[in-house]
UniProtKB/TrEMBL annotation, chain A:
Transmembrane helix listed as a keyword: yes
Pfam families: ABC2_membrane_2
Protein name, entry field: ABC-2 type transport system permease protein
Transmembrane region(s): 55-78, 90-107, 137-161, 173-197, 203-222, 234-257, 269-290
Keywords of the record: Membrane, Transmembrane, Transmembrane helix
Amino acid sequence: MPPETTAAPAQDVIHNIGYRNYAGPRLGRAYARRSLFSQSLRGAYGLGRSAKSKVLPMILFGVMVLPAAIIVAVSVATKMNKLPLEYTRYAILLQAVIGLYIASQAPQSVSRDLRFKTVPLYFSRPIERVDYVAAKFAAMASALFILTATPLLLLYVGALLAKLDFADQTKGFAQGLVSVILLSLLFAGIGLVVAALTPRRGFGVAAVIAVLTISYGAVSTIQGIALAQDNTAAVSWIGLFSPITLVDGVQTAFLSATSAFPGGHGPSAGTGVVYLLVLLALVVGSYGLLMRRYRKVGL
Amino acid sequence: MIATESLSKRFPRVTALDRLSVDIAPGVTGLVGANGAGKSTLIKILLGLSPATEGRAAVLGLDVATEGSAIRERVGYMPEHDCLPPDVSATEFVVHMARMSGLPATAARERTADTLRHVGLYEERYRPMGGYSTGMKQRVKLAQALVHDPQLVLLDEPTNGLDPVGRDEMLGLIRRVHTDFGISVLVTSHLLGELERTCDHVVVIDGGTLLRSSSTSDFTQATGSLAVEVTDTDACPDGVAALHAALTGARLTVQPAGRALDGSPASGRVLLVDVVDEGTYDTVRDAVAELGLGLVRMEQRRHRIAEVFRDEQNGGAPDAA
């Protein structure tokens, strides 16, 4: 097709070139799904949206990366022989930032479509319900992965610049990446399920924050009590009940991370299997719940 | 374009469609029915989004039960409800919907610019849609249904919420979608009179069953009557009767409207004159003038759905009325 030729020489001249039919390719369902994925992923950082909606995700991204930059600068300057913290520990330390990010972006991803009834329009396109849910889930998980993996990449590059041991650092970096992949999937699932319950964005934000902080607060309080009573087995089991301690448990058991549980009593490999199973069940379960949620949202 | 064969849709408590068989040819087709007549259910089934309980339906020769995705690629849909996010501009929104229909990015942008211009949206298309008037929103909704150059568009109550001028513009636009763009249109409404002006063919459904499917010219013939209301004067104490006699003398078919028109008290003073040709209007005017009566109103009669329903229930075609 010839390029658009409507550039009018003057504002008041409108060239009516008539209707032109479209004879080009129609790329179908898989392409539509990819388009929804990229639009949602860009939207999660405010790209393609108003300037105002870029502010919060970009600030959170900056806050997430800044400590890594400082650590790298200090390590290089003081010629440390290892990084002051493990790759797997980074996301745990900055969990509040990740929580705020998912709380602010999951509702904007799904509640908006529900509130303004854009969902029926999507379903009048070639995509099906499963495509919508998969695209939104993948986009949210990818956005979280970008948020959590970028600082790790920075640490890794910095560690190599500081001439730390290559094999050690690569192994640690890989373990960190696996851990943030699991974390991204889990947080995206929980965030989207909670956000998709309500078409009101404000409720969604509050609900996601509540789910993440209340569960974490409850779990660490009970763990603290258990530790005070020297019940270390309980400490390692109770971590199952909040998202971030679940990730912590999995990486303690399998990714040679140091546990952030009180007293460092993370789960052993055996208990860790349960942690991993629960985590995967939560990811699959939240996908299933989203599919259910959208069954009734057709036209 | 669309063919359904004893299509039924039953929900646990209601039957939305009951053995509906209808064939819709290319062109502009109106789908008329009261609220709850099954219009939206039919559209949902035609888009392949909701399985029919029994019967079959095909759109563009594709089976709705198995080829929904292919149908939706070639069909546009404009919903009745509001569906526009307020914080993005019309351009961004329509480009995104074009890509969701499978258009590559460059083509999506070109087609969006074209389509928005065709529906009459110019500079305002770069502003967030939250500030649009109802008329502009309806245009954007129409644009997103047309942006992928479908072979058929399904428009659900496109004139909802528009003022008379906006309504006329929208109807004109719908007419152009077929005449200028070559896209067939299925448009729903609960106002038959509105569709008469736009559509080639009208399908009336009620309670999920087909009440009537005929070309608009049939309806126009049926509605080709003129309602005339006159006053009495001293010379003619019963103006209506005098006019009745005068017009019958002029070989026109005349009958008192009785309560048939709108049930208002004045309808006893209204005569229904069958329009034979353009000359009929002159004959009526001259007859009124000769008798020296005051002409209160003289209007084209419009059918309302209720009348079609009543006529069908009485077992007669509307032109028997």
